[in-house]
Amino acid sequence: MTHGHYAAIESFWVSAALILAALVYLRGWVRIRRHQHDKVKGWRAASFLFGLLFIWIAMASPLAALDHEMLTAHMVQHLLLMTLAPPLILLGMPRKPLVHGPFQRHLEANGRLLRSAPMQQIGTVLTHPALCWFAAAGTLVVWHIPSVFMLGLRSQMWHGIEQASFLITGLLFWRPVVQPWPHISKWPESSMLLYLFLATLPCDILSGFLVFCDRVVYPVFLSSPHSFGLFALEDQQCAGALMWTCVTVVYLIAAAVFAARLLSPYRSEERSIVQFDSQRSAVRTDPQRMEAV
What we know:
This protein is mostly helical.
């Protein structure tokens, strides 16, 4: 099967999955707006839908057909899947609408398993900021090693794994920053500013290398047509500059918003409420602690 035929089939299934996710989210969001006081605001729903749109642009739009011809198009895909779509999806607080969607009964049936101690421990490990940071940085670096990069271009299966890994690790990376639902973290909130700053370093090193390198790092693009009038080396420099600029701007905006939220006078009060709720739930689930109380 040619790359074009496979890409068309992949685009169809990706589009269908994203449309289904949008409909499920919107149904749950409308249900929450009608029947519950704890509503998900309209801008959050718009954020979630824009996140899905960015995933569609990266994986199912005409841009996806250019990733085998231009490194810039390939870089745009990576940025959409890892840097732009994940924070927008998390800002949409997807858990609430999805729980109240058409799969509510199924999720409620499995809720006890998800709330079990082993699953809670696994969730704590997977959302630890250190693991989230290393997962995102490792994914970025590994997939840009020339031999691994070529594997993703030559194999449709590995290309799909590559895209899925960028999206998943992007969601993991942005989880401690966006905080889509209240939780108590052992790390001080101010550490997220350092978290974002350190995350720019692997991106800066990689993008700087692509911009200032005097040879084409991925020779496969030497034989590609000169799309938009760019030669292979110019395409590589454009891809590196795009990554450098986009990551710096997005992380800077995220750091500014997080700092403003951190300095907000309402933040300490909100955190106190979360701590109280967490302690109250712990007392309810721990008989020994109840006796002590």
